[in-house]
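Can anyone check this?
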Amino acid sequence: MALSLPIALDAMGGDFAPAAMVEGAVRAAQQGIPVTLVGRETEIKRELEKYEPSSLIDVVQASDVIGMDDHATDTRKNKNLSINVAINLLRQKKVSAVVAQGHTGATLVSALFGLGRLPGVERPAIVANFPNATGRVTLVDVGANADARASFMQGFALMGAAYSSVMFGKTDPSVGLLSIGEEEGKGNQLVLETFDLLKSTPGLNFYGNVEGRDIFKGTVDVVVTDGFTGNVVLKAAESEAKVLFGWVREALTGGNWLTKLGALLVRPALRGVAAKLDPAEYGAQPLLGVKGLVFIGHGSSDAKAVYSALSFAARAVEANLLEKTASKLEVLAQKLEKVDTA
């Protein structure tokens, strides 16, 4: 990868910072991805001393850190927080993207007020990518907006469709609305109102309602929901995948010698399945709707997840995700405006 600008990594965010952040950054640099580590310089450099020096890694001082127990709005009170310094580097175009594995709400607030929203975006949203029977499905929102309105959800659908088109090459991605039944009249008030909006949105390939099982069947390319429901789905799916794979491992390794022999034979195939199910394969998910590429990961991210997040961010930069998404949103917004004024 040949990025013209480095990716900023909040080196102080997350449960295992700065050690996991530094190790992940070193792995990324070894693959040609330039990284700017943002945080307490003394602590970061102490970790960097464990590895061979790299010209692709630099450090930017940020004296303060927002804790996981702090309120997200506290981010606005201190410009010296590591996440604020990282976002400011992106605003000044000194880095190409920001990756943060710490406080989701703080990252959202910092990005929203530090970068601003793309034209036509009412609320930013976080997307997640799930493996399914036909490839991958995009779920949006998975945590940025616990409370939502139908107009927010319409924006999520448009952003999700644009994202799926840019990152996964879907020419006309189908969009489904997560509900408790496929029928048009099923769902709570938010779903009913959103259904009517999406059905009448020009340029949107709206499939209709989908159920939880459709996420993994590959019924649609994009599934839209509110951030509260989406976050529950995301974490439940990740947890269930780990539990199921643990059961398979126990069944194959805990039997007689024939079972163990079979386990050796299927190990390569199981590794491939495990890679698909492992949340660390992506490491972080993009925050759509702000004027910059920002990626948010789990606070429990290890070095592998950090490396994956940096790699995914680099691919998004190379794919011109921000510019292409903004362009597609502008086209869709123009179509909506024509309908509204008709």
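Reply from J.R.: I decoded it. The domain at 125-237 is CATH 3.40.718.10 (Isopropylmalate Dehydrogenase).
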